[in-house]
């Protein structure tokens, strides 16, 4: 699928802007685990996901991670072009959770067209507002929801993404997503298993009582 077919405001750009994008956009394959954006050290440009799954997260000084949001098919990654927006500086890491096909619009091209095009500037602001809303939601979850409820919600979300109740996740991976210690996740998963919510095997978590998990997540 071409960039033109995926970009929501393509038809609102001028012909010269469309031609410039078509001549500049890059198609790239990211292997699982590949880092696309490394905080303020990088400025990859505007990234659109053709297929696959990216993860945006932040890293604390002691090496602890927490997932801010995921990017799926047809999603656009704006923070990978944060250097274009002078008032926006985030130390966000972006990596591929699965092998992914992406389009990349170089930052200087993105900046040039955004300065010329009101539709692109407006769309950029809308994207920024959406991501800000997602981050604020995450902050609310961390502040007001207990770890067991956040863990249940995460496992259900992961199950929906994978289309399976058997999830290939280590305790360390879950801890990185939720921004907590591995020992906390291990203790909570063992409690879930005792209650009959999940079944644990090496490197996997299987949801066995979805209704109880949903009730816990929504409580």
Written overview of the protein:
- There is one protein chain.
- The protein is of the alpha+beta class.
- 45% of the residues lie in helices and 23% in strands.
- The protein is built from 8 helices and 11 strands.
- The strands form 3 sheets. Strands 1-8-3-6 form a 4-stranded antiparallel sheet.
- Strand 10 and strand 11 form a beta hairpin.
- Helix 5 crosses helix 8.
- It is elongated, with a radius of gyration of 19 Å.
- The chain starts with a helix and ends with a helix.
- The model has no long low-confidence stretch (mean pLDDT 90).
Spatial order of the strands in the main sheet?
Answer: 1-8-3-6
- Overall strand count: 11
If you average the pLDDT, what whole number results? 90
Radius of gyration: 19 Å
In whole angstroms, the N-to-C terminal distance is 42 Å
Order of helices and strands: HHEEEEEEEEHHHEHHEEH
Structural class: alpha+beta
Inertia-based shape: elongated
Summed up, the helix count is 8
What portion of the residues fall into strands of 2 or more residues?
15-25%
Summarize the amount of helix as a percent range: 40-55%
* Largest β sheet strand count, sense and barrel closure: 4 strands, antiparallel
List low-pLDDT spans.
none
């Amino acid at each position: 699928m071409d960039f033109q077919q995926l970009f929501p405001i393509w038809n609102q750009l001028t012909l010269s802007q469309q031609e410039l994008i078509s001549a500049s956009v890059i198609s790239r394959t990211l292997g699982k685990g590949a880092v696309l954006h490394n905080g303020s050290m990088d400025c990859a440009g505007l990234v659109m996901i053709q297929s696959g799954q990216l993860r945006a997260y932040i890293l604390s000084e002691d090496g602890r991670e927490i997932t801010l949001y995921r990017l799926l098919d047809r999603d656009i990654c704006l923070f990978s072009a944060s250097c274009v927006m002078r008032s926006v500086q985030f130390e966000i890491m972006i990596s591929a959770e699965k092998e992914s096909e992406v389009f990349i619009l170089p930052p200087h091209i993105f900046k040039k067209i955004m300065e010329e095009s009101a539709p692109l500037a407006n769309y950029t602001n809308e994207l920024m507002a959406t991501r800000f809303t997602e981050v604020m939601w995450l902050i609310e979850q961390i502040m007001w929801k207990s770890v067991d409820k956040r863990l249940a919600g995460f496992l259900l979300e992961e199950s929906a993404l994978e289309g399976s109740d058997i999830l290939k996740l280590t305790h360390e991976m879950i801890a990185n997503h939720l921004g907590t210690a591995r020992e906390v996740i291990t203790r909570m998963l063992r409690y879930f298993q005792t209650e009959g919510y999940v079944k644990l095997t090496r490197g996997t978590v299987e949801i066995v009582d979805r209704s109880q998990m949903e009730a816990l997540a929504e409580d």
